[in-house]
């Protein structure tokens, strides 16, 4: 059995009233230890804050500091499903309602009444033209105007006349866009040698051509005619560059509408769409880099 003397040893270690020691150390020792850690962690905090401040001085408010490894823009489409599949029955409104709803919601930002403000928007022409230079990103010009893009350019895929976007007739529409990259200037193909033969007739100045075709050879001849609507059937250069959300808050991307007018019914068709440009390439690991694939199946019953 422990003695009272032994029982009080740990209490004396915690606080010795005779010597004034706390945990075996005098007040002076604890002051020095506390001072050391205060100074030590204060210096670490100062270095951290200083490093962050130095980094912030190197960052631009208007563009990413490092863009040397920015991938080419993605090519995306609406409606877009999780598995990139569009399947519906043209006689059953409920089967294609999610697709037409997605198209209406997406195109609502292109409504004419939303582009009337002369301080925010300007007309940039209905034919492909050169890049629209609105100054440097770092200049003090403030917010830049955006080019108008009328939904009427998308023809029967605009949703203005046909609220079903062709789905009711078994001729579905897709809306295609190039994803935004700050200060990116897509360059048209330098020569016909760099693109497939079937795309060469689409090459013209000041536009990035878009072309869709069957992905599998067994689907050749089953896709039928694909109609392209927009400016020049591709992405015109006057809508570039994009200056970012801060300087270009009202920016509208140019769109291309695809309408599949004669698909083979009751058949799953795999279609690939690509844009062609001198500074646009593709990555098989990224199915949306400069291209996309989609499966479409239409049942006419």
From TrEMBL:
Location relative to the cell: Cell membrane; Membrane
Gene Ontology biological process terms, A to Z: intracellular potassium ion homeostasis; intracellular sodium ion homeostasis; potassium ion import across plasma membrane; sodium ion export across plasma membrane
Alphabetical keyword list: Cell membrane, Disulfide bond, Glycoprotein, Ion transport, Membrane, Potassium, Potassium transport, Signal-anchor, Sodium, Sodium transport, Sodium/potassium transport, Transmembrane, Transmembrane helix, Transport
Biological role: This is the non-catalytic component of the active enzyme, which catalyzes the hydrolysis of ATP coupled with the exchange of Na(+) and K(+) ions across the plasma membrane. The beta subunit regulates, through assembly of alpha/beta heterodimers, the number of sodium pumps transported to the plasma membrane.
Complexes and interactors: The sodium/potassium-transporting ATPase is composed of a catalytic alpha subunit, an auxiliary non-catalytic beta subunit and an additional regulatory subunit.
Family under the similarity heading: Belongs to the X(+)/potassium ATPases subunit beta family.
Protein name: Sodium/potassium-transporting ATPase subunit beta
Phylogenetic lineage: Eukaryota, Metazoa, Chordata, Craniata, Vertebrata
Record gene name: ATP1B1B
């Amino acid at each position: 059995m422990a003695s009272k003397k032994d029982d009080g040893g740990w209490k004396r270690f915690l606080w010795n009233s005779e010597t004034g020691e706390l945990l075996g150390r005098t007040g002076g020792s604890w002051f020095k230890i506390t001072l050391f850690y205060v100074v030590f962690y204060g210096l670490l905090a100062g270095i951290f804050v200083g490093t962050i401040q130095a980094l912030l001085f190197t960052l631009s408010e208007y563009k990413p500091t490092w863009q040397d490894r920015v991938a080419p823009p993605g090519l995306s489409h609406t409606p877009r499903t999780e598995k990139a599949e569009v399947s519906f029955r043209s006689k059953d409104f409920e089967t294609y309602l999610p697709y037409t709803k997605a198209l209406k919601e997406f195109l609502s930002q292109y409504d004419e009444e939303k582009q009337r403000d002369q301080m925010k928007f300007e007309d940039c022409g209905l034919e492909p033209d050169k890049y629209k230079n609105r100054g440097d990103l770092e200049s003090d010009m403030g917010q830049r105007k955006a080019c108008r893009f009328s939904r009427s350019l998308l023809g029967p895929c605009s949703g203005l006349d046909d609220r079903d976007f062709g789905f009711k007739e078994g001729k579905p529409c897709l809306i295609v866009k190039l994803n935004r990259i700050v200060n990116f200037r897509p360059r048209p193909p330098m020569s016909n040698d760099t693109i497939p033969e079937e795309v060469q007739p689409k090459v013209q100045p000041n536009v990035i051509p878009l072309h869709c075709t069957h992905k599998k050879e067994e689907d050749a001849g089953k896709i039928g005619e694909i109609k392209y609507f927009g400016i020049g059937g591709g992405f015109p250069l006057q809508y570039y560059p994009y200056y970012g959300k801060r300087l270009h808050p009202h920016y509208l991307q140019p769109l291309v509408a695809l309408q599949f007018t004669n698909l083979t019914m009751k058949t799953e068709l795999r279609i690939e769409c690509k844009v062609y440009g001198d500074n646009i390439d593709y990555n098989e690991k990224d199915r949306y880099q400069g291209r996309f694939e989609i499966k479409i199946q239409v049942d006419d019953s």
